[in-house]
Amino acid sequence: MNVHTSESKHKSKVRLPVIRCSCGAEILLVPTVKKMGETIENHADSHKQKVKDPEEAEAEAEKVRNDLIAKILEKACNS
Ligand SMILES: [Zn+2]
Question: Angle, nearest 10°, between helix axes 54-78 and 33-48?
């Protein structure tokens, strides 16, 4: 069942774009809006969990979302 080896070899040459969050985490850009939204939401959540105060946690999540979206747009415009 190894008919696609040459294809996968070719694919590995393509570097998937990543953006870096302010916390240093690398966020992989995925080609669908739905998946990208989930990825951002999951990462915003991980920031949220580090903040104890619920209001501050929400503000932190909002900041991370906006930051990541801005970086994605920046990347999209430069490529
Ligand atoms: Zn982060």
Answer: 140
Which residue from 17, 4, 68, 71 is spatially nearest to 42, judged by alpha carbons?
A: 68
8 A C-beta contact, residue 75 and residue 19: yes
Ligand 1: centre distance to CA 46 (Å)? 8
Task: Measure 2 CA to ligand 1 centroid, in angstroms.
Answer: 38
Q: At 67, give phi and psi (nearest 5°).
A: -60, -45
| Reported pTM | 0.76
Q: What is the mean pLDDT of the chain?
A: 87
What separation in Å is there between the alpha carbon of 75 and the centre of ligand 1? 17
Domain residue spans in the chain?
Answer: 18-78
